[in-house]
Amino acid sequence: MSEFHYNPHISVDCVIFGFDDEKINILLIKRKQEGENIYALPGDLVQKGEDLDVAANRVLYELTGLENLYLEQFKTFGSPDRTSDPVDVEWIKSVREHPEARVITVAYNSLVKTEDFDYRPSSFAEEVLWHPIEKPQKLGFDHNEIANTGWAMLREKIKREPIIAFSLLPEKFTLRQLQTLYEAIVGLELDKRNFRKRMLRNKFLVPMNEKETGVSHKPAQYYRFDDAIYKDDFAKDQWFLF
Amino acid sequence: MSEFHYNPHISVDCVIFGFDDEKINILLIKRKQEGENIYALPGDLVQKGEDLDVAANRVLYELTGLENLYLEQFKTFGSPDRTSDPVDVEWIKSVREHPEARVITVAYNSLVKTEDFDYRPSSFAEEVLWHPIEKPQKLGFDHNEIANTGWAMLREKIKREPIIAFSLLPEKFTLRQLQTLYEAIVGLELDKRNFRKRMLRNKFLVPMNEKETGVSHKPAQYYRFDDAIYKDDFAKDQWFLF
Q: Residue B31: beta bridge partners?
């Protein structure tokens, strides 16, 4: 066995979630592959001398056109047979040598507003799309596992740092908008009255002297997110002592 | 440039923290290296066809004799020059070919009671030791950065899941023991009265009908950790709604 086989390829994969004011979507590419319709996460090999974070940003940009996102590394996936599905091997043959070589991948995630980012497919991506996370979609390689892990870890992070979720809302928002976002993240429909009662206990949610205008229904009150109260209330060191 | 240079080596590094009833220590090895005293984290290359988690357990065992720990992957470090310090290169030359090859490393951490684990150096480890984390120690490669990141991420986890810390105490413990542990994790000395007052607000801390015996000072009350109350109180889904 040559040295080559011993040294695996290293890739990066990007799990990008986007909120479109209604639901959470995941950014997928459709591979250029004759006779197959395979969707996958945007990902590719790390280059010689390239830092991992730099590679993640480059690969995402090259395949989808998205740039200037905050990408966070969340886990590395290295199961020895993660690229051995025959359909995947067939595709790898078309883009690089040594399709049998092991590939270990470092996964990154991010959460954005879909409207803030333009996309266009290029390189080996035939298509780029925002796919709703509640709709099942089989992905290439072990990308379903990577996507699920990426979402689970992001949700845990939002639990600890809710400010991440509020960054997806406009500066002034209604409780209806907040409930829609909240339900999209938690993945549950919630009772409106209960939601409002409990949510308003959070002091960082501040009512404004302003209501919706130009709507056919009863205009709703606007709220804003108060960063200072949040930091005081929520983001302080939460050791079990306190 | 041959394919070999393009495909980096992959290694695993283990950041093991151990509580010895007084302080938190980190498990280090001293490398077998002529004329040098270099300490490092236990780590080595992943083998062909070997899963990452399996590699971490194997490498830790081979170098230190520690086995049956719960190792958790926390981050992958891949800076292109992380193994280029001349002293490190010199050492790599003595253990493997291609000392100039890039090495990307997947890091794991764990927190144990030191008394639960025997250790003995073997392979390229000349020595194994528990080093107190409050005492600075220069390590080989980028191992200081890896160790610091491993500790920071573990502390964050303990904040969210204090049960991890309680697993380091005996089944019955005094408030003095709890304070010692707490100070070791937080890295601060705390006022005894205040600590007790605030800590006892946690209902999962249950006083027992039992006191210390055979001590020269006034016997202290024993407490136990109540798993059920903890789960009810603390471990429930902490979405910002509630």
A: B125
Give the tokens for residue A92.
Answer: 């790898």
Sign of the alpha-carbon dihedral angle for B163, B166, B170, B175: negative
Taking the C-alpha atoms of residue B102 and residue B9, their distance in angstroms, rounded to an integer, is 6
Q: Which of B9, B109, B240, B241 to mutate to test the interface with A (most CBs of A within 10 A)?
A: B240
Are residues A196 and A145 part of one domain? Answer: no
Residue A190 C-alpha from the chain's centroid: 23
Residue whose tokens read 């996936």: A77
Nearest chain B alpha carbon to A239? B159
Q: Where does the pLDDT of residue B2 fall: very low under 50, low under 70, confident under 90, or very high at 90 and above?
A: very low
User: Residues of B52-72 as b/e, b for ≥16 C-beta within 10 angstroms?
Assistant: bbebbbbbbbebbebeebebb
ipTM: 0.90
Residue B80 phi/psi, 5° resolution? -60, -25
Q: Do B32 and B69 belong to one domain?
A: yes
Q: Does B203 touch chain A (CB under 8 A)?
A: no
> Which of B1, B4, B78 lies at the smallest CB-CB distance from A3?
B4
Indicate which CATH number applies to the domain containing B29.
Answer: 3.90.79.10
| Residues in Cβ contact with A205 at an 8 Å cutoff, skipping those fewer than 6 apart | A178, A199, A223, A225, A226
CA distances from B187 to A225, B16, B213 (A): 33, 17, 30
CATH code of the domain containing B209:
1.10.10.10
pLDDT digits (tens, 9 = 90+) for B71-83: 999 999 999 999 9
Amino acid at site A57:
N
Asked if residue A60 and residue A93 are part of one domain, the reply reads yes
Round to whole Å and give the CA distance between A18 and A26. Answer: 6
Range of the domain at B195: 170-233
CA distance to partner chain B, nearest, from residue A26 (Å): 22
In this prediction, residues A26-55 reach a mean pLDDT of 95
Instruction: Say if the Cβ atoms of A49 and B80 lie within 8 Å.
Output: yes
Chain B: give the shortest CA distance to residue A35, in Å: 31
CB A189 within 8 A of CB A159: no
Contact in structure between A5 and B46 (CB atoms under 8 Å): no
* A238 inside domain: no
